[in-house]
Write a structure and sequence with these properties.
Layout lengths: L1 E5 L12 E7 L6 H14 L2 E4 L6 H11 L5 E6 L1 H11 L6 E5 L5 H5 L6 H10 L2 E5 L1 E3 L2 E3 L7
Parallel strand pairs: 2-3, 2-4, 4-5
Antiparallel strand pairs: 1-6, 7-8
């Protein structure tokens, strides 16, 4: 199985004016509270129209994707690897690209993909990035990328 994530140069073709993005910011991720308004502002300045639901838990992330998949052009996730894993569970099959704003602790997937960790640069990648496909695995009905473990 494959999914699409943003990479380095035209995501959905530049310019992004009029592109509707579902912005999912995990308020429990390490750096989201202090940077949420900056992320949203930079994305709007890049031409995105944002749909930004309130997220309370992992289930609300999946619900937001399911409810908005038909009316947005991409999903942008701000948080860490846990947030991205929650997004992945509903994103598989939605046929939407994923933009990543690394706001977590380790940000392993963002590092693996060589995505910038600075907010302005990460937003620029989403606004002007190329699409890349990555492999996604599935074990017992749970999707994963980058790594999995058994403990």
């Amino acid at each position: 199985m494959r999914t699409t994530v943003s990479g380095k140069a035209p995501l959905l073709g530049a310019p992004c004016a009029g592109k509707r993005a579902l912005l999912l910011l995990n308020q429990h991720a390490r750096h989201v509270d202090e940077q949420a308004s900056d992320v949203a502002s930079r994305l709007r300045d890049s031409g995105f129209t944002l749909v930004q639901p309130d997220l309370t838990d992992r289930a609300s992330i999946a619900k937001a994707i399911r409810e908005n998949a038909a009316s947005v052009d991409l999903v942008i996730a701000g948080g860490g690897d846990g947030t991205l894993n929650a997004v992945l569970q509903a994103l598989v099959g939605a046929e939407l690209p994923l933009g990543i704003i690394p706001l977590g602790t380790a940000n392993d997937l963002a590092k693996t993909l060589s995505l910038p960790t600075e907010i302005a640069a990460a937003c620029d990648v989403i606004a002007h990035g190329e699409l890349r496909r990555i492999d996604v695995g599935c074990v017992n009905g749970t999707y994963f990328f980058n790594e999995t473990s058994i403990g």
